[in-house]
Amino acid sequence: MPQDAAAEPRPVIVFWHGGRWREGDKADYRFVGAALAESGYVTLVANYRHYPEVKMPGFMHDAALAALFAAAHAQEYGGARERLYLAGHSAGAHLAALVTLDPRYFAAAGQTAPRIAGVIGLSGPYDFLPLLEPDDQDMFGPPPLYPESQPINFVRADAPPMLLIQGLNDETVRPKNSLNFATALRALGVPVTLKLYPKVSHADTVAALTALLRGRAPTLADIRAFVSQGSA
Questions:
Q1: How far apart are CA 58 and CA 149, in angstroms?
Q2: 232 pLDDT above the threshold of 60
Q3: Rounded to whole angstroms, how far apart are CA atoms 190 and 45?
Q4: What is the strand order of the sheet 42-46 is part of?
Q5: Which of 28, 79, 145, 174 could form a disulfide with 74 if both were Cys (CB 3.0 to 4.6 A apart)?
Q6: Whole-angstrom Cα distance, residue 49 to residue 62?
């Protein structure tokens, strides 16, 4: 939570970590919460179950529950539930985008989808077929279900604005994911801010949120500008 007083409720950001849907823990991303709180946002860094404990859509159901919790409790922490942003890095960006675009996950939780003011994706996989690794095939399978794992297949005209950040030296999630996703969203009139950082790797986009590595990429400045646009 921001430490300074505010005249009005603050934006709320839910952030999910990366790790190929297999590893990671929110405790390792406290630096993200700190950076965003310092920027004036109430921030929740959320965990989700990993493969092989669950397959798709298990972690998607977890993402929906985290977003619903944030909306329901925003006011308790000085946040505005109507200014809710969903964010993540790598697999976490996938969760943020897909839970926003595919209404089935909030419906499965038995609740109305919250109003999502925007999506912030760092180095996200949005268009990553074909699946070549056996564990990916198992996680997202069987094959007839593969398309349901792709956020690009669920773009719609009423989607919220999106900030897509990608390093051009990313060899883990190819930049074509953000490029293709942005193109598909823009074709339907969705506001998209696409930031492609030269000489920036997959991990650099989120590492740049740490105090020591802010000079590695302008991630925090671009997030601030994006949220400020939504608050205008």
A1: 12
A2: no
A3: 26
A4: 42-46, 10-16, 79-89, 116-122, 162-167, 192-197
A5: 79
A6: 7
